[in-house]
Amino acid sequence: MKTQKYRVEHSLIIGKPGAGKTTLISEMLQTVKTKSPEVKVFVIDVKNDRSDVDAYDRADFRVTRQCRITDTESVVEFVVTALEEFIRFSERNKEVLLVVEELDYITQCFNRSSSRFYFSSSVEKIIACGNSQGARIWMSCFSDLCASNILSPSTRSVIRKFTI
Q: Are 10 and 155 spatial neighbours (Cβ–Cβ below 8 Å)?
């Protein structure tokens, strides 16, 4: 019996702390890796929460660092480096999924930095080019307002939202 391929879409998972965003992403990743094992998963995790250690065990590549929101430049530098690594990762793999945890946290840091628009323009490019290049992005955040602050209305219209 042939397993039906899972269609990976751009997604935004919204929920308060402790609501189960990481658990939902973990379950979704399990489905992706079971039904579409050719999809390579790259995770950027800026908080490195100990309770999330097993959540991304199915990821092919995980970039993590325990950052403090008060250390804006450190967070920005880490995320810029991680996104550059993701670009190299996506060039080596046909179908890729970028998982970005703590979108609110990352957005706050970029908004206070001299690289204010780097993250939003990178996400916009991944989403705009994703359909032709096989790249998708999943992001988690506390509120839809965060996505509204970094993504254009046309880009937000192609992202599937889950509120938990």
A: no
